[in-house]
Design goal:
Elements lengths: L2 E6 L6 E6 L5 E5 L6 E5 L2 E4 L2 H6 L2 H24 L2 H8 L11 H12 L1 H8 L6
Antiparallel strand pairs: 1-2, 3-4, 4-5
The chain binds zinc ion.
The site of zinc ion has 8 residues, from loops.
Length: about 130
């Protein structure tokens, strides 16, 4: 789905709309107002180092963009997972139904092992040694 997102340049604070086409997760380019390099990622315009993005090698550009994205993601995840509301939610979290049998069910099944007929029903005929 094509999304029209509104972003603000982190350098000059100019606002603009950007069209994100399907499958595009990042747009890297210059701000049309101040010409500084920015990355549009996850609905946000992130400041890139224009010097690195203009003159560095491809590998250095990749490292720089990864550093900017990692820092952005870390901040977003901290907001999501380390806020007070998130921790109180986790305290109220009800675990899903316990998949393990309860102790009395285990005891009942263990007692069935002493019952030859129940044992055969569960495990089949015991092997002859
Ligand atoms: Zn700008």
């Amino acid at each position: 789905m094509i999304a029209l997102i509104s972003v603000e340049c982190p350098y000059c604070h100019a606002r603009g709309n950007v069209l994100m086409s399907p499958g595009s997760f990042i747009i890297i380019g210059p701000c049309p107002e101040c010409n500084q390099k920015i990355a549009i990622f996850w609905g946000q315009a992130l400041a890139l180092d224009t010097q690195i993005m203009s003159t560095a090698s491809g590998e250095e550009k990749v490292r720089h963009v990864l550093k900017v994205l990692t820092s952005f993601l870390a901040k977003r995840l901290e907001e999501l997972l380390l806020t007070d509301s998130a921790s109180s939610d986790s305290e109220q979290f009800e675990p899903e139904a316990n998949p393990w049998p309860k102790a009395d069910e285990i005891t009942a099944q263990l007692e069935m092992l002493d019952d030859a007929e129940a044992f055969k029903k569960l495990f089949g005929q015991p092997p002859r040694i």
